[in-house]
Design goal:
This protein starts with a strand and ends in a 9-residue tail after the last helix. It is globular and about 55 Å long. Helices cover 28% and strands 23% of the residues. It is built from 8 helices and 16 strands. A 6-stranded mixed sheet has the order 13-14-10-12-11-16. Helix 1 runs antiparallel to helix 3. A hairpin with a 5-residue loop joins strand 11 and strand 12. The protein is α+β, with helices and mostly antiparallel strands. One of its GO terms (molecular function) is DNA ligase (ATP) activity. InterPro entries: LigD_pol_dom, MtLigD_Pol-like, NHEJ_LigD. Keywords: Ligase.
Length: 291
C-alpha cells in the first residue's frame, strides 16, 4: 500500500519507504525522508529562493544517477518554480524548494540538492562566493584543512568572512556572504585568489582542473561561482556509500585533527548543540564587498 501523508495541508504520496538506499548502513528511503523532515528548519533557509538542481539516485549510489535542472515529471502543481533562462531554452524553469511540503516531496525522489550562489529572481547576481577544495590522492582532509585556513586568512585581509562545511565526500567547501555582486566579478576574484593560493603554497594548491596535475594537491575549484554552476547545498545528503551529509563545521573543527565525516544520524544532535553554523550566510551582519 502506498502511504499518503499530509504536510502543511498538502497531500503527498510517499513510495517505497522500506527500500534500502545506502546498503553500507542499511539506510532506507523512509529514513532519508525523515532526515529532511527533522532538519527542515536548517536546510530550508539555504534552499529558499535558490533554483534547485537535483542529482537523483533512486536505486542508491551504486545504481543509476542522473543530474537534472528541469522539473521532474509528475511534479505537483503547488511546487514553486522560477524562470532560469538558458541559451538553449529561454523559457526554462527550475524547482524552488521553500517549504516543508516541497522538501518532503523532493526527498521522496531521493536526491542531492544543488543550488547556485544567487537567488531568484536575480540570476547572475551572487550573494555568496564558494571555493570547493577537492584533494587529489594521496592528499586528503588534512591538506584541505591547511588550504582552507590559508583561504580564510587571505579572505579576512580583504574584509571577507568565510564559513566551512564538509563536501559530504572527501573535501571541504568555503562560503563567503557577499553584498549582491555580478557573478562574473565574483568568478574573477575567486580565480585570482585560487591563483594566489597556488603561488603561496605551490606544493599543495592547484587552481587548474587538469587531472595530470592533481595527485597530492588540493584543487581550489573557483568555477562554481559562475552563474550557471551549482554547489551541494548545506545539509544535503550525498550519493555516497554511506549517507554522508554536506555539514557545516566550525573553524575549531577545521583547525583540529581527525576525519570530518558526518552522516544523517549526526546532524540533529549537532543542530541541537551548535545550531546552524551557517546561519550567518542567511542573514549576515556584515556581508562582504569585493575589493
Amino acid at each position: 500500500m502506498t502511504p499518503i501523508t499530509e504536510v502543511e495541508g498538502r497531500r503527498l504520496t510517499l513510495t517505497n519507504l522500506d527500500k534500502v538506499i545506502h546498503p553500507a548502513t542499511g539506510t532506507t528511503k523512509g529514513e532519508i525522508v525523515h532526515y529532511y523532515a527533522v532538519t527542515a528548519g536548517a536546510i530550508l533557509p539555504h534552499l529558499r529562493d535558490r533554483p534547485v538542481s537535483f542529482l537523483r539516485y533512486p536505486d542508491g549510489p551504486g545504481g543509476q544517477t542522473f543530474f537534472t535542472k528541469n522539473p521532474p515529471p509528475g511534479m505537483p502543481g503547488w511546487v514553486r518554480t522560477a524562470p532560469v533562462p538558458r541559451s538553449d531554452d529561454p523559457g526554462a524553469r527550475q524547482v524552488v524548494v521553500d517549504d516543508l511540503a516541497s522538501l518532503v516531496w523532493a526527498a521522496n525522489l531521493v536526491v542531492e540538492f544543488h543550488t547556485p550562489q544567487w537567488r531568484a529572481p536575480d540570476p547572475g547576481v551572487a550573494d555568496r562566493m564558494v571555493f570547493d577544495l577537492d584533494p587529489g590522492p594521496p592528499a586528503g582532509i588534512e591538506e584541505c584543512r591547511e588550504v582552507a585556513l590559508w583561504l580564510r586568512d587571505r579572505l579576512a585581509e580583504d574584509g571577507l568572512d568565510a564559513y566551512a562545511k564538509t563536501s559530504g565526500s572527501k573535501g571541504l567547501h568555503l562560503l563567503v556572504p557577499l553584498t549582491p555582486t555580478p557573478s562574473p566579478r565574483v568568478s574573477a576574484y575567486a580565480k585570482a585568489l585560487a591563483v594566489a593560493g597556488e603561488a603561496a603554497l605551490p606544493r599543495l594548491v592547484l587552481h587548474r582542473m587538469a587531472r595530470s596535475l592533481r595527485p597530492g594537491k588540493v584543487f581550489v575549484d573557483h568555477s562554481q561561482n559562475a552563474a550557471a554552476k551549482t554547489t551541494a547545498t548545506p545539509y544535503t545528503l550525498r550519493a555516497r556509500r554511506e549517507p554522508a551529509v554536506s555539514a557545516p563545521v566550525g573553524w575549531d573543527e577545521v583547525e583540529g585533527g581527525g576525519e570530518l565525516v558526518f552522516t544523517i544520524g549526526d546532524i540533529a544532535p549537532r543542530l541541537a548543540r551548535l545550531g546552524d553554523l551557517f546561519a550567518p550566510l542567511i542573514a549576515p551582519e556584515r556581508p562582504g564587498s569585493l575589493p
